[in-house]
Amino acid sequence: MQENHGGVFSRLVPLATLALGCVNAPLYFASPTPILSVTGAPDAMGNQPRIENGLTLQFRNPNKTEQKDLDTQSAALGFGVPWIERAHVHIELTYDVTNTDSKDGTFGIGIDGANEYTKYDENIVAMALGAGNNNAPNYIPLIPVTPQILAAGKTVSGTVREDDFEEAELDLDAMGRWMAPFNAVLINNSQVNPVGLDMVPPNVVIPALIEIDVNFTANAAMSCNYGVRVRDDNDQLLHDSADTLFSPTPALFQPPAMMATN
Question: How far apart are CA 124 and CA 136, in angstroms?
């Protein structure tokens, strides 16, 4: 689902102040520093090195009128309506991976994150799935990027598109609030096969991601630099000193015990 292309800017900076007064102008956010970098040397168990970091998008709290509208909608639907909706916040991630080794190698990227209700961490899920056995960890990211072979000294650029994030946001909400089987919804594209989504109300309002976490692995010395672009339809990102920070406490998703023991 991801597309590769050249010429992706290697460093992104927050440009929120430049977007004020513009309708749906995209805002750009840099990945944390230092950038993701691995040596490629396996650990004591023979597993490829993994490293991760991420960023939290800072949104403002709703004002009194907006909160009243949310409460009214929630009461009418019979379930919570998120403040940060998928329909109004559109996310895209671009990445540059550079092979700094003298040999070719393969890298992988997995994207996890959180909405205001639920946080998904592929490392926690892998630990739960591996409890009681000696198998290699099975990492299942919220958004997988197809592993790629990268020649020594080369750089490849790619994009994780808005529709990839939209699918992930549906999956996360289905797993978190509606107890959908995570292995079914993560493996299947809902537009092709909506298996596992039976319990999700047809009129659900899907929350957008407010946290984005990137896992990077490679079997050669490589680095990964990424940036996040956000289109914020309703001007909910925090940029006015008069506003207060929206600070939800999402619950950490863990696969059901019956799945963890399979």
Answer: 14
